[in-house]
């Protein structure tokens, strides 16, 4: 018959094992935030990353999506504070934290997806990811939102058509500056914006085809102009201190998994772009497939001299990007 002492020892061992495994499990859970709903671009990247990493490592990914953590600026603040470990966030809002980050959203910087890949997967992209460290982020990889286009309540064909237009833009210094330079009235709003469009707080917005389709903006905006004025990346980041606390081998596996996931998502976006456009047309949107892009370029010809690039590090990185994209 077991003694009280034996039972006590068994209880201590079992308790230690239970709580030890619970702590271990908690340490291996990575919280990752995205603002978008399931099935859309950021989630495609996040879910692929989860699938790859969980097959190859002990880590488990918990995805917080559908703006459950707030807008993208709030997600970045939570990553900074260590409340969550990772996120896949549109490039625009990063420039509120690191001015150099705005160079990737420079208007008409990239002619096509192949050029964007070459620059962002090359030395310029590496430098940009590295610059995020000064704000407490570990830059991991570039996924994408795609080329941005205008939706509106009235037809937009040339730059003259956006004069005085109240247009929703991201919470981003460069996006506000772009639309002011074009003569529009930019209104910074976090995503999603269906409520603001329905209430006519703004008369227009700009986004790639994927979110226009997934968020059913065709129910709220009649006109779509394929201006492709900015290539919009998604940047996958981690909390820098947390990332550096991981074993070197785990850091490498995590980064490799995110790079694979980002490439997968970019291919997904490009393979579906024509279908998104087809669906938007079928849903009743009036699409201008050949707007006067040159009129937008002309109005932004001197944008490089804008005060938002006066910081030496930002100006230097912009030159590197522009040289690489020629």
Task: Please tell me about this protein's structure.
The chain is of the alpha/beta class. The chain has one domain (28-324): D-Maltodextrin-Binding Protein, domain 2 (3-Layer(aba) Sandwich). Helix content is 45%, strand content 17%. It is built from 12 helices and 11 strands. It has helices at residues 4-27, 41-56, 72-81, 113-120, 123-131, 173-181, 194-198, 209-214, 240-245, 248-282, 293-299, 312-324, and strands at residues 29-33, 60-64, 86-90, 137-147, 149-152, 166-169, 185-188, 204-207, 223-225, 231-239, 286-288. It has a 6-stranded mixed beta sheet. A 5-stranded mixed beta sheet has the order 2-1-3-10-4, with helices on both faces. α2 links the parallel β1 (29-33) and β2 (60-64). It is globular.
Which structural traits does this protein have?
single chain, 326 residues, D-Maltodextrin-Binding Protein, domain 2
Q: Provide the residue-averaged pLDDT.
A: 93
Number of strands: 11
Structural class: alpha/beta
**How many helix segments?**
12
Beta-strand residue percentage:
15-25%
Look up the CATH topology. D-Maltodextrin-Binding Protein, domain 2
Known CATH architecture: 3-Layer(aba) Sandwich
Supply Rg.
Answer: 22 Å
* Low-pLDDT segments: 9-25
Question: Which term fits the overall shape?
Answer: globular
- Give the neighbour order of strands across the main sheet: 7-6-8-5-9-11
Share of helix, binned: 40-55%
């Amino acid at each position: 018959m077991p003694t009280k002492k034996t039972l006590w020892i068994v209880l201590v061992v079992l308790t230690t094992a239970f709580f030890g495994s619970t702590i271990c499990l908690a340490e291996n859970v990575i919280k990752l935030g995205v603002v978008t709903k399931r099935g859309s671009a950021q989630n495609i990247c996040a879910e692929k990353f989860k699938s790859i990493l969980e097959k190859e490592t002990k880590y488990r990914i918990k995805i917080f999506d559908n703006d459950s953590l707030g807008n993208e600026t709030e997600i970045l603040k939570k990553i900074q504070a260590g409340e969550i470990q990772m996120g896949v966030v549109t490039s625009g809002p990063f420039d509120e934290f690191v001015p150099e980050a705005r160079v990737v959203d420079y208007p008409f910087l990239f002619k096509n997806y192949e050029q964007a890949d070459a620059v962002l997967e090359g030395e310029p992209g590496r430098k940009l990811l590295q610059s995020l460290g000064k704000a407490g982020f570990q830059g991991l990889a570039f996924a994408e939102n795609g080329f941005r286009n205008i939706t509106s309540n009235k037809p937009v064909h040339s730059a003259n058509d956006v004069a005085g237009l109240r247009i929703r833009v991201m919470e981003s210094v460069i996006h506000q500056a772009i639309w002011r330079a074009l003569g529009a009235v930019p209104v910074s709003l976090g995503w999603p914006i269906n409520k603001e469009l329905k209430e006519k707080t703004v008369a227009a917005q700009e986004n790639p085809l994927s979110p226009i389709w997934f968020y059913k903006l065709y129910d709220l905006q009649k006109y779509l102009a394929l201006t492709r004025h900015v290539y919009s990346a998604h940047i996958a980041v981690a909390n820098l201190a947390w990332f550096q606390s991981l074993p070197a081998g785990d850091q490498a596996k995590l980064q490799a998994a995110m790079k694979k996931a980002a490439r997968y998502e970019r291919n997904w976006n490009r393979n579906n772009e024509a279908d998104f456009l087809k669906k938007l047309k079928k849903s009743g949107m009036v699409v201008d497939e050949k707007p006067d892009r040159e009129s937008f370029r002309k109005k932004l010809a001197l944008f490089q001299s804008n005060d938002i690039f006066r910081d030496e590090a930002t100006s230097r990185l912009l030159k590197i990007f522009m040289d690489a994209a020629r």
